[in-house]
Specification:
Length: 241
Amino acid sequence: MVALDKITGETIWASKSISDTSGYVSPLLIERGGKKIIVTFLANYLIGVEESNGEILWKHNYCETDSDESKEVWINSPKINTNTPLYNDGRLYITSGYNHVGAMFAISEDGSEIELLWTDHTLDTHHGGVVLVDGYIYGANWINNRSGNWCCIDWETGKPAYETEWHNKGSIIFADGMLYCYEEKNGNLALVKADPEKFEPLSSFQITEGKGPYWSHPVINDGILYVRHGEVLMAFNIREQ
């Protein structure tokens, strides 16, 4: 990891190499123990880097977390690791597809160490992201590259609350008590109440503009829902009338 001066482009610091290759994750900046920590997910390692100087505070080999589990990781699994970790109150959650486990870590109060708390086989999100709402993690899992179900698991324990089939796996965001679930095969987008008891779309519609897989993450700003599909960007007014 490197830090650059945004005005001049000069290198401010470069962290030491841990002999790993990059993943696709967008880094996450957190604060713990008076430190600002950049969290990212490489091909194999989850790492925390001190923002001020590039020191690697901790690392965890995610592949070793998988190694003692009973569910076999897909043999053709690329190490893409696309989902930005979730952080809340000293806890850090990561997930990836291809039957990799999801994993929850505790970060020490001074930010210098992490401890593995639990792993989960239900919610192995491919590349659609996950959200935390009122103590539960919501997202879609990976069954194969063409299918997956929508899931909810407990933040504290990793225990599954539900796993429900709805069209296909996809992206998820949260706003105003609602999940916005955008499946990747046919572009169906559903409004779903964030309820750990069940996955029940309250309404849905289909994106008909654009071409290619429906892989973008929807965005909501000031009552407008933005959805990109291929070269087309659509804006929907979702304000209460």
